[in-house]
Specification:
single chain, alpha/beta, six-stranded mixed sheet, four-stranded antiparallel sheet, 11 helices, globular, binds adenosine-5'-triphosphate, binds magnesium ion
Amino acid sequence: MTPDLMEQGARRVQARQAKLAQSTESGGRSAGFGRVVHAGEVDVTHGRILYLEDVSVSFDGFKAINKLSLDIAPGELRCIIGPNGAGKTTMMDIITGKTRPDEGTVYFGSTIDLLRYKEADIAQLGIGRKFQKPTVFEHLTVYENLELALKTDKGVKASMFFRLDSGQGDRLAEILHTIHLAGDVNRLAGNLSHGQKQWLEIGMLLMQDPKLLLLDEPVAGMTDEETVRTAELFLTLKGKHSLMVVEHDMSFIRSISEIVTVLCEGSVLAQGTLDEVQNDERVIEVYLGR
Ligand SMILES: Nc1ncnc2c1ncn2[C@@H]1O[C@H](COP(=O)(O)OP(=O)(O)OP(=O)(O)O)[C@@H](O)[C@H]1O
Ligand SMILES: [Mg+2]
């Protein structure tokens, strides 16, 4: 290395350290500097699996997300509520790389800057997303749908000869049980109820062992009984995975929630237990008191 290149390198290190010294407690973009993280792992040494700071996005001049900051702890089940148009789905679009924010910081663990990744890569990193409408393969059985979830990153030829290894087989059996479909393995997905299709899709996400699951209105359209069983399912997943659940169904939120974040006009309006946010005058005015 030539002396001028060494000098340039030393200047870069100095500049980076000066930036680190000014950073916030969480460290923002520089949080992981100098720490070794192994492939497939998420660094949660700062106690956060997901971290958003001052994120904004506008659509045709309308600020759908406005200086949004929030974080989620590893294994946490976070509920997000808020009026229509508050930006809940848009926030998930940003986390999963579907929408690029105009500004702000979005980190997965302390070291993975999600804004550097494409949508498909973010799924590979361990963030699974469930949209409102179930998207299972109706002409395949429950078993085949789950099996297929493991093949998504493989080419056509590799998929044709793909066989589950024993670990994957055990995992599939365990997931079938978790999603309450152990007795329906050979049924065509198209013949399942709406709720069962939702569970199957969650099972497909689980096959990839996501660290963080984003679930947008998962109980919309479910029967009361299905809703109760979905609450049980989420409580089983909590701890093993981190979950972000957006819902309008307050009795469902009550049955699963610890911390509830209220979004309004693209930012956090309130945060706390469900009782705390339900008694917050501002929340009553914009959402619950409608
Ligand atoms: N791609 C887009 N282009 C233009 N406007 C958008 C786009 N995505 C979202 N919006 C607007 O941003 C705002 C926030 O929408 P978003 O879907 O995130 O709300 P939400 O909180 O999920 O509401 P809901 O509870 O009805 O699902 C809305 O006004 C919406 O019309
Ligand atoms: Mg939405």
